[in-house]
UniProtKB/TrEMBL annotation, chain A:
Name recorded for this polypeptide: Aspartyl/glutamyl-tRNA(Asn/Gln) amidotransferase subunit C
Domain of life assignment: Bacteria
Family designation: Belongs to the GatC family.
Enzymatic reactions: L-glutamyl-tRNA(Gln) + L-glutamine + ATP + H2O = L-glutaminyl-tRNA(Gln) + L-glutamate + ADP + phosphate + H(+); L-aspartyl-tRNA(Asn) + L-glutamine + ATP + H2O = L-asparaginyl-tRNA(Asn) + L-glutamate + ADP + phosphate + 2 H(+)
Protein's GO biological process: glutaminyl-tRNAGln biosynthesis via transamidation; regulation of translational fidelity; translation
SUPFAM superfamilies referenced in this protein's UniProt entry, alphabetically: Glu-tRNAGln amidotransferase C subunit
Function as written in the Swiss-Prot or TrEMBL entry: Allows the formation of correctly charged Asn-tRNA(Asn) or Gln-tRNA(Gln) through the transamidation of misacylated Asp-tRNA(Asn) or Glu-tRNA(Gln) in organisms which lack either or both of asparaginyl-tRNA or glutaminyl-tRNA synthetases. The reaction takes place in the presence of glutamine and ATP through an activated phospho-Asp-tRNA(Asn) or phospho-Glu-tRNA(Gln).
NCBIfam families, per database record: gatC
From TrEMBL, chain B:
GO cellular component assignments: glutamyl-tRNA(Gln) amidotransferase complex
Active site: 79 (charge relay system), 154 (charge relay system), 178 (acyl-ester intermediate)
Keywords associated with the record: ATP-binding, Ligase, Nucleotide-binding, Protein biosynthesis, Transferase
Molecular function GO labels: ATP binding; glutaminyl-tRNA synthase (glutamine-hydrolyzing) activity; transferase activity
Protein name as annotated: Glutamyl-tRNA(Gln) amidotransferase subunit A
SUPFAM superfamilies registered for this protein in UniProt: Amidase signature (AS) enzymes (SSF75304)
Enzyme Commission numbers on file: 6.3.5.7
Species: Candidatus Nealsonbacteria bacterium CG01_land_8_20_14_3_00_12
Gene this chain is encoded by: gatA
PANTHER family linked to this entry: GLUTAMYL-TRNA(GLN) AMIDOTRANSFERASE SUBUNIT A, TRANSAMIDASE
Domain Amidase: 24-467
Function: Allows the formation of correctly charged Gln-tRNA(Gln) through the transamidation of misacylated Glu-tRNA(Gln) in organisms which lack glutaminyl-tRNA synthetase. The reaction takes place in the presence of glutamine and ATP through an activated gamma-phospho-Glu-tRNA(Gln).
Length: 95, 476
């Protein structure tokens, strides 16, 4: 069983606000899922390379050049921003 | 025949022969949608005006005597995690409730080049995380075969829409079974293409090494048509590939039943499976045998590890992908707090539903300091073993047949309270995503009134072959 502190720590890493009620629920649910996942510990993986990508492929390169049509796209993207100022994204103070 | 019961080919022929206009076809579907979707709730957004004006455009082309592409004017639906420019794209989450897509996904761009006709956007489990479409922030979709049951998920809206004749075909996405399982539950055809066969540009990312977009259709032929239209390499998705598809093409005409070697993995017929489902699947396999295919038992010995492996890899990738929803760049923003950290915490608390939060937590845990090797790296190594199993099996056989899901469609609320029970309904589908293989779900019988799907798994980039194998049973 993972501890309440661990749940809080993970939530903080994930930048996820939690309610009190959720804290206990996550503790229970995550423990159950992690317990199920423990099955993998029984598998012999010695000498096995990890797979991050199922289909073999090579690096894809392209020229580092400007693409057209960016202006209209930028306008649409900026319209989606919750708060802007002078064409910049506005955020709350960090310090 | 009713306009709303046609296949793509039939509808295309009707348009070309001027038996009906694209406008009439579109109106017929919109009318049916308006009436039927009240009980099914497959759609989150209906784009009536743009659909009707698109229909007029296609009619003009026909009147001018121009040749029209096969998908021109054919009413379709798009899963609401795939962007259609200027149309709301919610990913069934409160966090994107008011998000207007600023561009077209590559698959949508390709369909638009064929003058497709989009009726609207379909419901899904929030961020495609789920197997019942009950995790949608905007309510559950219901199974057209039995309204008290789920349509499966996460592409439940797309599958229900096709099954209820609310559209002619739909696009879904499949990360661990999200096209195949709802196709199975709704008695229609679903194709999960090889990883990389279809561009993911404009698909809202869940688990990037597993996600693929694919067609959900009424027939195998229709699946082939839609797959042809959306596949191909794309410079906007560097994991998509073009060249390999050409190299690996297996023309359907070359698939002869008497030359087919079909594998049946013994690990897929285990306790916990509904015996009625098992019976239907075994009968389908027997039909292939009777038609002359050679059936061989194969072993995929790491099958049991696939689900735990998936539930490390998928949530890990999801936790990274979903970091972008921060209340700053787009989407829901909760800015009442005092500083930037509060904006993050509150926006993500308000915006994400329970299953999404659970997976973000799980993924963050698996990737956090001290646990990475024990969980994520280990899972990636097990992934290699799962892939090796398939490579070995495919040395002996052309395709592998399995059930899609251990049960037919279950009741609403039956599994939603226990995440692990819900996860188990993907037990037969996740391996395919981990190995990057193509697979289809094909209706092959019923348990009571509920459809059961047969899964046909193929070698990488052999979509045409598994579709051809599917067509053999469909027409038998």
């Amino acid at each position: 069983m993972i501890s309440e502190e661990e749940v809080q720590h993970i939530a903080k890493l994930a930048r996820l606000g939690l309610t009190e009620k959720e804290l206990g629920r996550f503790q229970k649910e995550l423990s159950a899922i992690l317990n199920y996942i423990e099955k993998l510990k029984e598998v012999d993986i010695s000498g096995v390379e990890p797979t991050s990508h199922s289909i073999e492929m090579e690096n894809v390169m392209r020229e580092d050049e400007e693409k057209g049509k960016l202006k209209t796209k930028n306008k649409k993207l900026l319209e989606l921003v919750p708060e802007t100022k002078d064409g910049y994204l506005k955020v709350k103070s960090i310090l | 025949m009713e306009l709303t019961e046609l296949t793509i080919t039939q509808a295309h022929e009707g348009l070309v022969k001027k038996e009906f206009s694209a406008f009439e076809l579109c109106q017929a579907y919109l009318a049916r949608l308006e009436k039927k979707d009240k009980e099914i709730s497959a759609f989150l957004t209906v784009t009536k005006d743009s659909a009707l004006s698109q229909a007029k455009k296609v009619d003009d082309m026909i009147l001018e005597g121009r040749e029209i592409p096969v998908l021109a004017g054919i009413p379709c639906a798009i899963k609401d995690n795939i962007l259609v420019e200027d149309v709301r794209c919610t990913v069934a989450s409160k966090i994107l409730e008011n998000y207007i897509a600023p561009y077209d996904a590559t698959v949508v761009k390709k369909l638009k080049e064929e003058n497709c006709l989009i009726l609207g956007k379909t419901n899904l489990d929030e961020f495609a995380m789920g197997s019942s479409t009950e995790n949608s922030a905007f309510g559950s979709t219901r199974n057209p075969y039995d309204l008290s049951r789920v349509p499966g998920g996460s592409s439940g809206g797309s599958a229900a829409a096709v099954a209820a004749n609310l559209c002619l075909y739909a696009l879904g996405s499949d990360t661990g079974g999200s096209i195949r399982q709802p196709a199975s539950f709704c008695g229609i055809v679903g194709l999960k293409p090889t990883y990389g066969a279809v561009s993911r540009y404009g698909l809202i990312a869940f688990a990037s090494s597993l996600d693929q977009i694919g067609p959900i259709t009424k027939t195998v032929e229709d699946a082939k048509i839609v797959f042809e239209a959306i596949k191909g390499g794309d410079e906007l998705d560097s994991t998509s590939v073009e060249s390999k598809i050409a190299n690996f093409r297996v023309p359907a005409a070359r698939v002869q039943i008497s030359n087919l070697r079909i594998g049946v993995p013994k690990e897929y017929f285990i306790k916990g499976m509904d015996p009625e489902v098992e019976k239907v699947i075994k009968e389908a396999i027997k039909k292939y045998e009777e038609m002359g295919a050679k059936i061989e038992e194969v072993s995929l010995s790491h099958t049991e590890c696939a689900l735990p492996c998936y539930y490390i890899i998928a949530p890990s990738e999801a936790s990274a992908n979903l970091a972008r929803y921060d209340g700053i760049k787009y989407g829901l923003s909760e800015s009442k707090g005092k500083d930037l950290l509060d904006v993050y915490l509150k926006s993500r608390e308000e915006g994400f539903g329970p299953e999404v939060r659970r997976r973000i937590m799980l993924g963050t845990y698996a990737l956090s300091a001290g646990y990475y090797e024990a969980y994520y790296l280990r899972a990636q190594k097990v992934r290699t073993l799962i892939k090796d199993d398939f490579d070995q099996a495919f040395k002996e056989v052309d395709a592998i047949l399995t059930p899609v899901s251990p049960t037919p469609a279950f009741k609403l609320r039956e599994k939603i309270t226990d995440p692990l029970t819900m996860y188990l309904s993907d037990i037969f589908t996740v391996s395919v995503n981990l190995a990057g293989l193509p697979a289809i779900s094909l209706p092959c019988g019923k348990v009571g009134k509920l459809p059961v799907g047969l899964q046909i798994i193929g070698k990488p980039f052999e979509e045409e072959k598994i579709l051809a194998i599917g067509e053999i049973l469909e027409k038998a």
